[in-house]
Amino acid sequence: MSDVVVIGAGVAGCASALSLARRGLSVRVLERNPGEGASWAAAGILGPQLEAAGDGPMARLCLASRALYPELVASLAEATGIDVGYRRCGALRVALSAAGREEIAREIAWQKAAGLAMELCDGDAARARAPALCAEVTGGAWFADEARIDPPSLLRALRIAAERAGVQFRSGAAVRRVLVERARAVGALLEDGSRVEARWTVLAAGSWSSLIEASGLAPQAVRPVRGQIVELTPASPVLSQVVFGPGCYLSPRDDGRVLVGATMEFAGYVPAVTSGAVRDLLTAALRLVPALGEAPLGRTWAGLRPHPRDELPILGEGEIANLVFATGHFRNGVLLAPVTGKIVAALITGEEPPLDLAPFSAGRPGLAA
Length: 369
Ligand SMILES: Cc1cc2nc3c(=O)[nH]c(=O)nc-3n(C[C@H](O)[C@H](O)[C@H](O)COP(=O)(O)OP(=O)(O)OC[C@H]3O[C@@H](n4cnc5c(N)ncnc54)[C@H](O)[C@@H]3O)c2cc1C
What we know:
The protein is α/β, with parallel strands linked by helices. It is built from eight helices and 18 strands.
């Protein structure tokens, strides 16, 4: 019997497994189908300031996680030699109208008071940072501390580092239910009827978390929200920073590629790429950065974000003892990977978690039907 069994090998499960193993616990990760999850599909934007329309527990959780990234990235490079593409490239959020610019200013006003790096800018100042932006851009805001990462490299590095720290990964292991004895989780029951027992169980199954029986989560507590991405491959780099605009965001890569994302669709468990979504993303992207019209089309893909009813992650223990939730990260699971690992490890080793987890509890009213 191991100390911990983790259900799901996306960024939440892998970051948790790594943190636990680095504290000396024996960990097994059960994964039904590597590559099925959202983590491979993400654009890799580490943007708490871009995403937060106000101060609050979610903004604080996201900021805390962004602050943990440099240390995590350095430790992954040391353990695996992999460059996970972490770049503190900054991000621009831009508008195409006067009203849009005012809305941005209103939504981020709290950030100045909170001492976060942000600058409001007019259209010319935005174009001075990103000259490829179109003439219609009326302005917006510049966030110097926002960053990006390459999610497939991050996931690979987390998994290799975890394996080197002693974690055992089992692929093709489909979990049917949490094993519960006397109101205490004791591991997982697989679809093939076998049992994997552990002192602690971590539920990190992304969009599929509510489908696993006996966790205590309501059947619709976490649902999939599909996101589609179009990759463009310009001959030379067009952008160096992340750009958030109306109808799309643009996430550049060192080699000049630009990921155009992403749709938000309740479309069940169907990670399809649709022609209408590709059209809409390209229309928005080419309006914002006309030069991308010359760029060859690269790949397209879709992933399923784990969407909790109230859009807050589910972190911490629920009604069943020794079961820890690390799920429901929705649009920010890559950003939240470091803090998720830290929280899960703290709870299981009996330490104080780095933040108050009450707003993220599995028992909160916002999750109920
Ligand atoms: C298009 C798109 C763009 C995104 N962009 C960003 C971004 O820029 N920044 C950001 O921070 N976040 C982004 N996200 C969100 C982010 O990808 C997710 O929040 C995050 O990947 C969730 O990680 P996870 O480990 O919880 O889930 P997943 O990565 O989905 O992993 C869950 C794993 O559990 C496994 N599993 C499920 N059921 C079972 C079972 N019964 N038994 C065993 N294993 C099981 C699955 O196979 C899967 O591998 C994006 C998502 C999408 C789709």
